Amino acid sequence: KQIVRSGKSVSSEMKTQIRDEVIAREVFIQEAQKMGLDTTEDFKTQMELANQTILIRDLFAQLEKKNPTQDQAQKDKKIADYQQLLRSNATVTDASQGPNLAVVNGKAVPMGRLAALEQQMVRSGKTVTSEMKKQIKDEVIAREIFIQEARKLGLDTTEDFKTQTELARQTLLIREVFASYQKSNVVSDLELRAEY
Description:
The chain is mainly alpha-helical. It has eight helices and three strands; from the N terminus they run H-H-H-H-E-E-E-H-H-H-H. A three-stranded antiparallel beta sheet has the order 1-2-3. Helix 5 (111-123) crosses helix 6 (130-152). It starts with a helix and ends with a helix. The model has no long low-confidence stretch (mean pLDDT 89).
């Protein structure tokens, strides 16, 4: 489906490659599950972020489908205007003194989301400054506003959303299997030198 959605046709050779990849992915996923990697808090947090990202992407993709535009500047402006409209219609209350970051339209936004995005930035090699923390807080609140709108439109119940979420789950599990393997199979300098 992903390949067809990108505008490409699927040849019989490509179908074979896809089948082989599906089998390989399943082997790695089963290994991840045996290792319990799908039950860790880190995995659950990463899945929540992936689900949010998919929903938000789908929300703005739906906007583009309803009002197609070829010009990228017009697309960007349309999305920015829509984001501003959603933000201006939302009721946001700061709740950062307790376990929640804020309350958006009556729904609590847990402080853990802020920590999750900060952790994601650190993983990508960035240092999180106090200015960045404020930007991340604003991003978490904006994401909640957009997620609520996407859910209101039923985007979290579509087959496409379910498929994308499953692919994200698989990708995260496979990444965790390889990360776990690398941690437990560190190659020493002596081994590297002997190999090369």
